[in-house]
Amino acid sequence: MNSVKEVYGNRWTAWWRRNSTVLQVAATISCNLGYLLETGYTRTAAALSMVSLGGATLYYISKRRWKIKPRDLVVITGCNSGLGYSLAMHCRAQGATVLAGVRETAVVLKPNAVVESLKDRGVIVHQLDITSEESVREFGEKVKQLSEERQLALRALVNNAGVMVFGEFEWQTQELAEYQLSVNLLGTMRITRELMPIIRRNGGRIVVVSSHCAADPLPGISVYAATKAALHAWATALRVEVGKYGVNVVSFIPGGFISESNIMRRQRLHFDEMERHMSDEAKQFYGDYFTRYAEYFSQADLSSGNQDNIKVLSNSRIYETFDSALLEIHPSAVYRCEPWRYFFYRIMFKNTPMWIRDRLVQCFVNAPSWQIEKQ
């Protein structure tokens, strides 16, 4: 009984969040109409009624959604943990046929707990390394096979796979920079190109998981931010290119959820790699700053546990925003799910002088401070 109440409670909460603004506007207009009629301004009240009716109609049309059916295939990349895993479970619970791309289907000689969990819920799992042409080609064949055998329509490709490495630019090796570029940007392009014929044929949708760092780059993840900014530019141009073929491209910004993701599970190893390749001059210059920095940002790595630790996002707003990005018939270009803190900083970043903005950025990241040792 409690679970049923919880489900309906969540539905009512989601409904209220989606419609609270329009309900408040409707209440305000109704009060104004009542006042105008009461005071004898009938023509003004009639005009306001027509304008309100037209606005409500346009709003309803713009917010219409298509309903997920079992024949709808949703392909999601990067489902090993965090957002990808959670979205795969969510889409499957909504009734869609879900194909989840994962880096590996087994860990050494034992089953992968994430993969087994996905399969238990009816999600179809297939190995996918978006940095490999061969792996992407095999994944594309799997999508074609599923579509033909089960008579499925590819409704959406959710480009979720991504990696992030913390560390100042000078510390990050060329290999680490190319690793992020290969996965976040080139890998997303590769899988999208492979599936584009099926997407066009079915009038599907391309959902690109972006980041607030695309527009507001942060220190410590300059390379990651560069890949996300490039991804945003690509998605913006692609939206116009494929729009004439009936394909929608939307960017989905889910906000921060590092504590519920394994995206930083290798951060400690990345810092070790940076230190091994750091010159003697750099080690002497940075001193204990690098050590303090590495210890601070490795905390997320330690909290993530082992590779089989299953991370499920608990923020219901992420799922609500994702549903809008996935299902709205006339989608917006960008969908954001961000806490008030992110919203506040984003506005301040864009409307303050550069020297104030830079200080705000440092407060937002809250990284260890740089202290020059006294000689």
Automatic annotation (TrEMBL):
Provenance organism: Lasius platythorax
An MF annotation (GO) of this entry: oxidoreductase activity
Gene3D superfamilies, alphabetized: NAD(P)-binding Rossmann-like Domain (3.40.50.720)
PROSITE patterns: ADH_SHORT, PROKAR_LIPOPROTEIN
Origin organism lineage: Eukaryota, Metazoa, Ecdysozoa, Arthropoda, Hexapoda
A biological-process GO annotation: steroid metabolic process
Name of the protein in question: Estradiol 17-beta-dehydrogenase 2
Highest rank taxon of the organism: Eukaryota
Keyword annotations: Oxidoreductase
SUPFAM superfamilies: NAD(P)-binding Rossmann-fold domains
